[in-house]
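Subject: Interface between my chains keeps coming out wrong

I've been trying for a while to get a sensible model of this assembly. When I model each chain on its own everything looks fine, but I need the whole thing in one frame so I can look at the contacts. Pasting all components below, labels as-is. Any help appreciated, I'm running out of ideas.
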Amino acid sequence: KQEVTQIPAALSVPEGENLVLNCSFTDSAIYNLQWFRQDPGKGLTSLLLIQSSQREQTSGRLNASLDKSSGRSTLYIAASQPGDSATYLCAVIRPTDSWGKLQFGAGTQVVVTP
Amino acid sequence: GAGVSQTPSNKVTEKGKYVELRCDPISGHTALYWYRQSLGQGPEFLIYFQGTGAADDSGLPNDRFFAVRPEGSVSTLKIQRTERGDSAVYLCASSLNEDSEAFFGQGTRLTVV
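Reply #2:
Try treating it as a single job with all components included. I did that and got this:
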C-alpha cells in the first residue's frame, strides 16, 4: 500500500530564506507527482505537476524535483515571502489510476515571518 | 463557471441527520472527484465519476455515504445518519478527462454536533 510522508509537519523561516519541503513515497511505481498549496479554510491550488517522464518542473520561484527510484520529491521555494505562508501538500498518482485520483501526504505547514 | 463550485461552504448538522453536499464542476469537465479532509490530514479519495457513472468508489468509508451525478455535470454527495466522525472538509475536483489535471473547489466544511 502506497504511503506518502511529508517531513517536517511544520516549518518556520524568516523572510528571504529558501524553503525546502520534502515528500517521500513507499511505492516507486508512481505515474505523476503533484504539489499543492492550501491556505487556511480554502481548497487546493496546484503548484507543479511532474509527469511520468519528467524529473523536475519549475514555475517562477518554485522548483520541484522527482526521484522515483529513491521515492522522493523536493519542493524548493526561493527567497521566501510572508505570502508563501500556507500548507504545502504533495500527492502521487498510480499508473493505473485517473489523474484526479490522488494520494496525499499530510502536508507541511509553512510560516514565513517578516 | 470559472472554477469548481461547492455549496454550501459550511454545514452544521445534528448527529443522525441526513446531509447533501453539492459540487458544480468546471463546464465541459467529464471527470469529477470527491475527497474528505480531516483536520491536520491530507485529503482522502472517496469516489470519482466519469460522465454519469461512478468509475471508482473504493474510497467510500461505508454504506452511509453515496454520491450521484445524474446528468454528468453537477454531483451530490449524500451522507445518511451522520456521525461526529464525519466532521471534515469535503472537497470536490474536476478534470477535462481522466488523463488531465484536476482542479479543486473551495470545499464544504461539515460539522456534526
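Reply #3:
Confirming on my end. Chain A has a mean pLDDT of 94.
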